[in-house]
Amino acid sequence: MGTLGYAILGLLHRRSMTGYELSKEFESGLFEVWSAKHSQIYPELKGLYEAGLIEYQVEISGTVLEKKVYTITPAGQQALRDWAQAPCGPLQTPKDEFRLRLFFSDCIPPQRRRQRLEERLAQHRQRLAQIEKDREKFDTLPPREGQAFSDYLVLLGGIAREEATCRWLETCLELCRQQEA
Amino acid sequence: MGTLGYAILGLLHRRSMTGYELSKEFESGLFEVWSAKHSQIYPELKGLYEAGLIEYQVEISGTVLEKKVYTITPAGQQALRDWAQAPCGPLQTPKDEFRLRLFFSDCIPPQRRRQRLEERLAQHRQRLAQIEKDREKFDTLPPREGQAFSDYLVLLGGIAREEATCRWLETCLELCRQQEA
DNA sequence: TTTCAACATGTCAATATAGACATGTTTATA
DNA sequence: TATAAACATGTCTATATTGACATGTTGAAA
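^ inputs. structure came back:
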């Protein structure tokens, strides 16, 4: 099974959900960590079900709309534990199209490069603000047992990454401007 | 054309290379930025050639070994410039399997989680040491024109990312240990 | 009461990527 | 001179991922 399967298993371990809710989780809580479109989620759910790792019950929303609420099975919980415990292997390249463009930016006008850096900085600042607002929900350090602690660690990781990125982009802009003179 | 095509175009804009050398570039200079296996590179080169964006000449290594040295064409340079100038669009999720595992780590023994954090920290420290050695090659700030400047900016980005990651992992370990008492 | 956004579930085709399979040469060193 | 690592180029299959296509319901607000 691929990583997406475990991501879904992990989310369902926290609470039972529909495919639609899963796709929303990837956009919110897992935004800094993993992503998947609904077109990938629904087939994956089918596979997990056939593998006996999840089950579902149909609930009626309103009068006719059927939704499938998925729940993790004991076999699914075991698979999740095994995966979560295993080591990750050597560091992989986190693909970053912006950095790639910057790497080859010597062939574009300097003011255009500055413009792109500024745009990007604005995006990361906005993201940082959002994620720091998420942090406010944790008024006290959550206890080590329980998912709130894991959530908190990953949240700190997101903040660390966004802060570092913002500082880096600010440095880039400074260096670009410095040489203007 | 996908991002890989532009990555190859960008590398060939710097200097003419064989497919093999391109694959090495992805492991070294582009390690923090993009990755591709040779099984993806060779077909992509074929496509770029058919699109008229690159050409090649066959050189003989030793007595019989033929290698294709690829060169970017004017059309390729134009395509590269157009791409490098364009904006990147909204922030994407940088997929990170380690963070995903950590996010679901409440279902594994705490000492196992600490072990994984320590392993990961060692990997990132090693990577940081390597990348900081690369930085030493830049004794002075390179002039804004020319690729050395772009290289330098991206290198700073790698250092910033690795430093932030190391600090974050150290914090995670501290928090894990703190609650031990 | 209409109408729009959010809820809800799927499929399909195209592309991207990884890993295995396949083969052979050159160069440095033991 | 054997041999191993690095050089060199490809293909193939399976899987992962995206974006478009397709359809319909529900709840809230105007």
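The two ends of chain B are 56 Å apart (CA to CA). Chain B has two domains: 3-85, 97-180.
thumbs up if we can close this ticket
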